[in-house]
Amino acid sequence: MRLRERLHRLFAGRFFPVAASAGVLVAFSLLTRLALLVSVEQQAGLPFFQALGALVVGLLYDAVVALYFCVPLSLWLTIVPSRIVAWRVHRALIVLGMAVFAWLMAFNAVSEWIFWNEYGARYNFIAVDYLIYTREVIGNIRESFPVGAILSGVTVVALLVTWRLARPLWRRVARPAARGERFSLGAAVVALAVAATATLSADNVPAFERDEARELSGNGVYQLVAAFRNSSLDFRSFYATLPETRALAVVREAFLAAGDRPPAQPHSLFERVVLDDRKEAPMNVVLVSIESLGADYVGAWGDPRGLTPNFDRLTKESLAFTQVYATGNRTVRGLEALSLAVPPTPGEAIVKRPGARELFTLGSVLRDRGYEAMFIYGGYGYFDNMNGFFSANGYRVVDRLAIAKERIHHETIWGVADEDLFDLALDQLDAAHRAGRPFFAHVMTTSNHRPYTYPPDRIDIPSGSGREGAVKYTDYALGKFIEDAKRHPWFARTLFVITADHGANARGTFDIPVDQYRIPLIFYAPGQIQPGRFERLMSQIDIVPTLLGKLHLSYRTKFFGRDVFRAAPETDRAFVGNYQALGYLKDGRLVTLLPHRQVRLKPFGEGPGQVPDEALKDEAIAWYQMASLAWTGRQFRDDRGNTKPAEASMSAPAWQPTVTAPSAPAFSPAGPATR
């Protein structure tokens, strides 16, 4: 009997459940991909051959995933004797298993659709990250979508698939099969799965011109597993690098160009001294990071919808920074930038890494000046390790648990309404003032997040109608907070720094939509800071040193950010990224570093383009390489006991580039073993 006939007999008989399962998976995956393709066509469109290529490559990945799922079932049907396979109970279990499998495939299709609409990508590390917080994620889904209707639809689809396959499954699985044929087929399935695992990677998809095509060509289940395996990436192993002495020299030269000085006795490779010859201007500091407030939603930044009348009014009375770019697309990246002032490193944000304690932070500098440092959050601070990170770094943490139930006007799974958060902040600021200490408070909002609900009768957009309403409500709460603060004795000596943790729509896994990383930033301190506009390119990591510059502080620093008012315009740059793609904006161009040592360069906006391409690529590599080294080599630790400056080595125009960085351990999600 020829091989083709034998295979047909097996897959039409005992191994029919294997073929049926593979067919169900491929069918659901193909339908999902077609639905996502329709979505892409409606938004941006894809050239025909790009779309066709995505479908073809996608079928390859679907087949591989189907193969993985088939291995256990194939092994079972290989080793189980024919008399057991023919039992009615066994056949019933096969049919029941198909029902469960079909339900999971239908549910996954819906989940992929929801994830795509939120992040513009297949499952990636964000999905892995959210699996840790099932309560919040499930709660957010229940508040945002008609879960009952969705699950009912999924169940109906699964039952229809099962009904169509139940009879042939029942009959065919009981057909006899020769032992030799069974074992040969089982071994072949395992061998194919092993071969596919060894040769296929989620990162070696053909280089489509459009990233939408690359994402479409993937398989959600496959990419979820790949994202889980790649939740941490050792920079030196996966990204393009320079010799460490060369990379260190590039970064140190940039520090000096920003006006920093090498200390006489450095405690780390990146430690400098910031010297300000002006008299210190001590003020309380309130740093408000607003959830997902992209610049494209703010009227003062050009949005015509009138969603931010209070922010717009404050902007006219503030020092406004118009070209600020967030470092990432998640809250933890924003918190990382606004506390550590460091470029984003691949994998987890430092906020979530074990060992992220006793680090050099904005709180470190201000505590050495007698400030009380606080982190005030409207949600439960265990989420994303916010409480753990800030408390381990000297901040007093206050979260949702500190708010009495009767004071809460509205809440979602993510946190209380922003007006309730700001009331809590006022209480904490009053307490710090009564204690006779200057205060620094980092206040993190939550209302501008799906399901976009808020207390009624606050604004003219109904609660739950979408992001526009949430933006306008947050603006309402912010305006109320500032007006309430004006009635407190500490207001006249307080600097309000108001910005966002990240933009609203910074999607993508490999592509970096730079325009979606732009965020608003204002320094508001009536009578203390002159209103105006700063329109040069600026990174989110520059906010901290620029803030300290407005206080006229001299201090020892490990920040990678710089005071933009001390830096020459030709040195302006910004860092944008996600979990794998690392972007460097400068001179009208974007350099993107990707795993497998890929380096891309493309124009962005308008710029003089004076830096040669290769030199610009080297700059990007150097910054990210040294930021990763700083973490793995424990260079971010606040190990000096005091941030006040010692004598600077003013005689040395630069650090010697011959200094060799200490050997750093390979990157792991655990980071340095200090916790």
Molecular structure report:
- Helix content is 44%, strand content 11%.
- It is α/β, with parallel strands linked by helices and 675 residues long.
- It has two domains: 227 residues, no CATH class; 311 residues, Alkaline Phosphatase, subunit A (3-Layer(aba) Sandwich), CATH 3.40.720.
- Strands 2, 3, 4, 5, 6, 7, 8, 9 and 10 form a nine-stranded mixed β-sheet that branches. The protein has a four-stranded antiparallel β-sheet with strand order 12-13-14-15, with helices on one face.
- Helix 2 runs antiparallel to helix 3 and helix 13 packs across helix 21.
- The C terminus is likely disordered.
- The CATH class label of the largest domain is Alpha Beta
Tally of distinct domains? 2
Radius of gyration: 28 Å
Mean pLDDT: 84
Runs with pLDDT <50, length 5+?
A: 647-675
The best one-word shape is: globular
What's the story with the biggest beta sheet? Answer: 9 strands, mixed
Helix segment tally: 21
Give the beta-strand count.
15
Name of the CATH homologous superfamily of the largest domain:
Alkaline Phosphatase, subunit A
- The secondary structure category is alpha/beta
Fraction of residues in helix: 40-55%
CATH architecture of the largest domain: 3-Layer(aba) Sandwich
